[in-house]
């Protein structure tokens, strides 16, 4: 029992020692005061010599040569990007020329001011430009969680002037949004074709309730923004009524055959057009494309209805 008490006491001592050690570590951590840069309004450290975003100087003892070199390295790709994006930055050429003139005379402090102004101008112009570009994806953002996440990331990067990260997120979002837009377009086109085919089926008195049920399922899937899945469902929309289409088509073609054998149609352009449409119908039937089969049946029917 005594030994157990000793072990317990040791554990408590070590536990207290660990607490003291952790508390001591917290106490010696430096506290950093933050405040807003009066130029670009980003949050910066109180003891910073210059703003790490817009490079506004807070301490005149800063190394202006180092700052000038840093700005040149930052400014070059941003000016190139602005040009490629068609973003106009008035006065930037004059500011850069003035900075070069002072830098050539080793007057780095005088060269810093116009260069910092040029950098601030191009960054503000790019941020405004990319904000407008980002807004174009608000509609697609509501359709897909991945796009929403990338949109949020892109917004954050733009806020922090992290342009390279912003462009990476933006490009990825564009790819996803493009895919969604294509899937949505494919769905709408497929839906239009299937619904048109169902209308034709009704004209031929083919029961379409089962096909309409599949269409309703596809619409429900599309409502959840899963357009690719909805297209796959629509591809099978007429499968439940395939046998009815086949039997109706057989009876219809027998009627067509009888009409084509009549003297009225022999050698007529109407007859040649009908024969062409029948050949097309056969191709679609062999492919199992019953949307197109119904469309061809409708075209044949209209061709036969023309006056001769």
Question: Layout of helices and strands, plus pairs?
Answer:
Elements: H1 2-28, E1 34-36, E2 43-45, H2 64-84, H3 92-104, H4 108-135, H5 138-141, H6 145-159, H7 163-203, H8 209-223, H9 227-235, H10 242-260, H11 269-287, H12 290-305
Antiparallel strand pairs: 1-2
Model description:
The structure is a single chain. A two-stranded antiparallel ribbon has the order 1-2. The chain has two domains: 33-130, no CATH class; 184-305, no CATH class. With 308 residues, it is mainly α. Mean pLDDT is 86; it is low at 24-30. Helices cover 74% and strands 2% of the residues. It contains twelve helices and two strands. It is elongated and about 105 Å long.
Characteristic terms for this protein:
2% strand; elongated; mainly alpha; 2 domains; 2 strands; 308 residues
The fraction of residues assigned to DSSP E strands is under 5%
**Major sheet strand order:** 1-2
Give the helices and strands as they follow along the chain. Answer: HEEHHHHHHHHHHH
How much helix is in the residues?
Answer: over 70%
Alpha carbon gyration radius? 36 Å
Let me know the largest β-sheet: 2 strands, antiparallel
Q: Uncertain runs with pLDDT below 50, 5 residues or more?
A: 24-30
Strand count: 2
Structural class: mainly alpha
Shape: elongated
Number of discrete helical segments: 12
Number of domains: 2
Question: Quick check: average pLDDT?
Answer: 86
Measured between the Cα atoms of the first and last residue, the distance is 116 Å
């Amino acid at each position: 029992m005594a030994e157990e008490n000793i072990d317990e006491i040791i554990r408590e001592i070590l536990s207290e020692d660990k607490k003291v050690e952790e508390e001591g570590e917290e106490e010696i951590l430096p506290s950093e005061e933050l405040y807003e840069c009066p130029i670009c309004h980003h949050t910066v450290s109180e003891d910073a010599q210059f703003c790490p975003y817009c490079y506004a100087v807070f301490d005149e003892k800063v190394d202006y040569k180092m700052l000038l070199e840093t700005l040149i390295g930052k400014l070059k790709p941003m000016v190139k990007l602005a040009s490629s994006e068609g973003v106009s930055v008035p006065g930037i050429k004059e500011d850069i020329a003035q900075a070069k003139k002072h830098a050539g005379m080793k007057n780095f402090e005088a060269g810093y001011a116009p260069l910092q102004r040029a950098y601030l101008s191009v960054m503000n112009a790019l941020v405004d430009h990319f904000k407008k570009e980002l807004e174009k994806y608000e509609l697609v953002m509501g359709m897909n969680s991945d796009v929403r996440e990338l949109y949020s990331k892109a917004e954050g990067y733009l806020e922090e002037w992290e342009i390279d990260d912003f462009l990476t997120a933006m490009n990825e979002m564009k790819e996803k949004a493009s895919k969604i837009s294509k899937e949505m377009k494919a769905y709408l086109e497929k839906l239009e074709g299937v619904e048109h085919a169902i209308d034709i089926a009704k004209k031929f008195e083919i029961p379409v309730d089962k096909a309409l049920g599949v269409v309703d399922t596809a619409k429900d899937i599309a409502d959840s923004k899963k357009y690719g899945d909805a297209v796959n469902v629509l591809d099978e929309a007429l499968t439940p009524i395939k046998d009815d289409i086949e039997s109706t088509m057989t009876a219809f073609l027998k009627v067509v055959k009888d009409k084509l054998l009549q003297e009225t149609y022999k050698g007529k352009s109407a007859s040649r057009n009908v024969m062409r449409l029948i050949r097309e119908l056969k191709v679609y039937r062999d492919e199992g494309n019953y949307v197109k089969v119904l469309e061809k049946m409708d075209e044949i029917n209209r061709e036969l209805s023309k006056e001769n």
